[in-house]
Amino acid sequence: MTSAIANHGQTLAPLMRKAGFRYVFLGIENIVEGDLKFLRATAKNTAREHGHSIGNATLQAIEYLHRNHMNVVGGLIVGNPEDTQDSIETNLRFAWNHVDWPYIQHPTPYPRTPMTRDFKQQGLIEIDNLTQYDGTTAVVRTQSMPAAEIEYLRWRAERWMKVRHLPKVIRRSPRFVLRNGLRMLRYTFRGSTIKTFLRLEDEQKAFQRYKLLRAAERNYL
User: Fold this and answer.
1) How far apart are CA 191 and CA 209, in angstroms?
2) Prediction pTM value
3) Same domain flag for 167 and 210
4) Sequence-separated (6 or more) residues with CB below 8 Å from residue 186
5) 210 and 120 both lie in a single domain
């Protein structure tokens, strides 16, 4: 919860660092207030002062953790019913600017949940094959965007966010990176080719190859 760190971080964050914390997962969920209400996550992301709400707690929580030399693993959810391309890209820019390691997912209508009822009533579920309900495959559309477009926006941005963290990993665990760095990069950019990086092909082609690889990975199910 970002609120716990934001509201008590001045004393809590130094103790966490002293106890050995290096990475902290924050359930940011979303930085758009309307999306937080849909996700029922407003309370866990509210900063308080003297018992009163004073806004979103996310930035304050991140500042406390960074000040005490801890890395933020930021969990965000994009693709909620009222999301637009602008609101999704706003969340992705926030992750780029403030999060050390992104963990970005899409809302997933698991069977017999209130969220699933809401999505069905609004006619937003595009994929009902449960083998694709892994959190990182967009299976529902928004009121203005198809699921594939939502997933493409996340995929395109998230790969480069992960690469930005590599220098910190090299400083902390150089032997690990020497052993696994190339494999990590291949996995992060699977589907992309030299043509993709040289911009000699549309990134959508790389995305489609990535989707085919993901489909093959699910064959064991």
Assistant:
1) 5
2) 0.86
3) no
4) none
5) no
